[in-house]
Specification:
With 462 residues, the protein is α/β, with parallel strands linked by helices. Helices cover 30% and strands 19% of the residues. It has 2 domains: 356 residues, TIM Barrel (Alpha-Beta Barrel); 66 residues, Immunoglobulin-like (Sandwich), CATH 2.60.40. It contains 14 helices and 20 strands. α1 runs parallel beside α10 and α6 runs parallel beside α7.
Length: 462
Amino acid sequence: MKYLYIGAIFLLASLLLGMESCSKNTAQNNTPPVFPDWAKNKVLYECNIRQFSEAGNFKAVEAALPRLNEMGIGILWLMPIHPIGVKNRKGQLGSPYSVRDYKAINPDYGNADDLKQLVGRAHELGMKVILDWVPNHTAWDHVWISEHPEYYSRYNGAFTVPLNEHGEPIADWSDVCDLNYNNKELRKAMIDAMQYWIKDFDFDGFRVDMAGLVPNDFWAAVRPALDSIKPVFMLSEWQDEPGHFSTAFNVNYGWKWKDVTKDIAKGNANALALDSLQTFLDAYYPPGYSQLYFTQNHDENTWSGPEIDLYGQAADAVNVLSFTWAGMPMVYNGQEDILVQQLGFFNASPIRWKQYAKNDFYHTLCFLRRNNQALWTSHYGGSRHKINSSADEQVYAFYREKNGDCVLVVVNLSEQPKAFTLQPAPQISGTYRDVFDHHAVTVKTDMSLTLGPWEYLVLTNK
């Protein structure tokens, strides 16, 4: 859904219309799952294994771990690693989200020893690894199709492509077949498969694809089953189910944050749109919710375009927001190298790595987030407090504080230079350090500033 803004009221109205909660997903309790302590200050990095290197395998990802660790990445998300369906396959190689066997490894990527070595090396470096999980559907030639046909949904009496939240077939998902969560044995088998990757390969959690198309009472059973092995981190791709925060998930996708920031970058909205968005999200989700913020992921890159096409000169400014907003930031593989490719989904089109031109930019933001408690996720971090200015339609400013750590962010969200007066609260006055140029900046009430188009200022008291 695309949003066109003619003012804050229309933004809020469009969000209210666009955000639907699936009736089959009802939270089972009001106690949120434990947010693992190790995830509190981590930055997520999505790795598209097939496109990450010319080799397109686990060993190439492992070789890059020291570089990613040095950049400050804390959680590595591996896109699906399973064998890909052949029946109804799209393209030459098929979709990684067309899973043929939940307990097997795609031989194109390597073998079990290669995967264990990758996860083990990440752990040695202090990084965590989560696995992309596809619970809503399988390939048409998944082993369950013949062995357990009762696991699958029927539409007009026949196996069916995935059904949307309204029970309607999703026509363009022709390469996958819908699972039926009314079947108790399917639920047991799915939990067993998820536990397998934690027990045998030491994964630290899951990013769950289309989590909202699976009943929320299933997730209520999943989380304790996984935590009984080790504390896990759970990320839901779905944004339209607040109950996920009460069953299994620590973080969900900030899809609407992404849409709003894209519209700001394209001039279809101004900085006030962020206030309207935040008002809605705070009312829609339970207290303490956390979202994942990004400008690129595999879907955005492949189907919408690379960052430069979507954000233009605003890209750095929006990434600064993604790292300093109250949530968890993510980097998609290649962003540290100014990825301008649209990576293929069904065929190989590996990243053409160059000189990692944005490495220092992300290094600065990753380590700021790692070391400054104000920016940590969930209850570990500080609340965000807006700072008013004389140019609120163009300039967005805020500060966050936790246990004496403070970060102050000012961003010109327009393509024009802007001179303005900032009005921070007296209690945050003082001397700060610019995290990018390391100069000292004195913050005081009614301070005058000038920022160029899409320019930003990130200050810390540490």
